[in-house]
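Hello K.,

You asked for the raw outputs rather than the summary table, so here they are, unedited. I folded two proteins back to back in the same session to keep the settings identical. This is the first:
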Amino acid sequence: MISGPTGEVDSPRQIGDGWRPGPPLMLILNVADIHFRHPECNTPMDPDRPYRTLLVRDARERVAVLGPANVILVGGDIAYHGLVEEYDSALRWLSELADAAGCTLSDVFVVPGNHDVDRGVIKNRADVRNAQRAVSSARPERRERELWEQFRDAKAGPSLLAPVDAYNQFAARFNCQVYAPDKLFWHQDRPLTDSVRIRFYGLTSTLLSGAGASRNEDDSRLSLYLSPFQTGLDPVEGVVNAVICHHPPDWFMDQDDVDDAIRGRAELHFFGHKHRQRIHRDANYVRFSAGAVNPDRNEPGWEPGYNLIKLSVNDDGKSLWLDVEAHLLTWQTNPDGFHPKNDGRGALVFGHRLTLRRATVRDPRTPAGSPVAPSDPKPPTARGTEGNADGEVAMSEPHTRNLVLSFWNLASSQRREIAQRLKLITDEEMKLPEPERYGRALIRASERGLLAQVAAEVERLEKKA
């Protein structure tokens, strides 16, 4: 039983007003708030381990029926204190989860949450506190400009991101790191059909998170700031925009602007933080609030959970639709395990249909070689030696993400050797933190058409090991 676009309930084979979901094109596994806490997570006494273990087992059983996952979205709070040791444990678990879900680590996308912020950095560094204070205390009409000036400043920009240094080191292997002054969020593409692509936007909601750390104060609603710099979300025809952000809009000073922009420019929304598993279906979007994988066991309404979302595209030649079928899996004790929520009317799958605009021209950021809608006989030529104006989007292809993962699995000296051999970094950039240094180098390789050479160098060094 699946709820159709009008809210009616009908047979899953004949939904709503008579439409049928098309063949599945993408299965998304959505988790958030994993909360790997050191030292517990690195000992046999970790009390949260059973929930993660059983989630992996549940995912393996479900994808055996639904088909393998194509993407794993991790909505923040991967760590608990933002420590390297916590990310080491998280990486091992995500590798297990990806294997169980039928995909690889290169199919994982991550964003930071407030627990990915190392508050010790904020307490110990006045430059971080000063940069945060400059933005948070600015007048509302001035705050956007203040963030721009701080983030673009050679000293203040890196200070704003210093509390997520360990997260950035972890996120770099997924090409999801952020750095000043160029990359406040990430965006990556995956194809759905010959003419429809999904573009994932990973937003950074933590720039002001932990600002009260020196006073032992937690973040509160309306204490964070996202800004229009992250909510442009360029609504291109033929591209389904999907937003992944740890904090939902009501945590931002600019909550109304954030909510309006995301609602108006993105079809799929993925939030975490609240530890409540919810789905909201609107005529123009579907919004998911991921249940925490490991919420605090003492909090009211404690309920581990995760989501599986199946996407398909229906095209009758006149209209184009995105069909969304969501399985919301939540924890049940005695017997232990994850079980599907129902939609209040007995259906165990939440379904919805969204109308899409058919692409008539190629999005200039679409990687070369990707098919163009038939209605565009002469697609415009994009910049760049690989036919792409956006080197980051060009790196979205699975084989390239595999390359990024392999690159980050090399030793630091080997990464440096490749970047210098292919002249992908300058001497000045060698002073940058590694996630930024080699993030820039790989995007530059994409823009210059040198990814094949990078792959050859990686393979050469792997064979030497």
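The second followed immediately with the same parameters:
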Amino acid sequence: MADRTPKRTTSRGEPADPDLAILLVGASRVVADRLGAAVEAAGIEDMRTPYGFVVRALAERPRTLTELAEVLDVSKQAAIKVVDEMERRGFLRREPDPQDRRAKLLRLTERGLAVREAALAESGRMEAELREVAGEADVDALRRAVLALLERHEGLERAGTGAARAVW
């Protein structure tokens, strides 16, 4: 594949091509848009981007509100607002915690699980498309580079467990 490092410069000597930060933010937007479209195509309406962080965090197992807030790296107040909306819209439900009578577990409903399935399928399609266009070696290198970036900034462990800091 061709070398994609910036070659053109502005009159001030700065790269004329988008900087890496802009490219990563742009790619993030494409991913979010594609996931949203896939969920909508699966017949799931009124899904909002913040819900995806919660769906991902609860896909592994039910969690208490405190655990969810920790995984998402948000306040409990921010988490409860989204959880309340999601419960009203049928994406999750609260259940008694068998280990602690005072606590409630948050569990995905069938609707919430359908969101997860649609998003995972679309994620697989995006990677397959990228491998077709850019090639196996470049996609593998991209994965290594992103993992190195996360590791350097102490985000690799969180990404490996599926945790993601919610950007609400």
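DSSP finds seven helices and two strands in the chain.

Happy to rerun anything if the numbers look odd on your end.

Regards,
P.
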